[in-house]
Amino acid sequence: FKALTWVYAGDPKKAIATLDAHVANIDKLGAGRDQVLNAKVFALTNLAQIGMNSGLFDDAQRALAQRATLARENAKLVGTPAFSNIQESLIAFWDGQLAAWRGDYKTAAALAKKNAELVANENNPRKLEGYHELLALIELRKKNYQKAVAEYQQSDLTQLRNKYQLAQALEGAG
Description:
The chain is an all-alpha fold. It is 79% helix and 0% strand.
């Protein structure tokens, strides 16, 4: 992903602009609608993460709003209640991440709860990893390091972001 080179170069605004241009050009690739939607959702997720981690919250919010619209459109294409629920749980998860980064912990916690409720009936032992990841981020941002560690240990530790933030929580906890 070319846009990520701008992050490593210390220019997250350029990375966001590159991803915005990429999203605008995806329609020109000639792929099927489902592939176009998935590619845009992927790019917008990366854009939102860059925005959140760089303090560019308005860019992150704009990307997440676009992402939510596209995810819901994709859910209509797939046409199953289970897929729609998963998309809604991911929308709640990402909106909760942004709320936590902004310091709105009450909203973030409510969205974590919504995420958990939306996946409650899934037959998947890992269904609550996103819920725990979001609770962990809230506790990390609040500097409640012990609680953050406990939540990160229940999140998806195959995600490097979670391993890194778990390390931050462990360091903060002493």
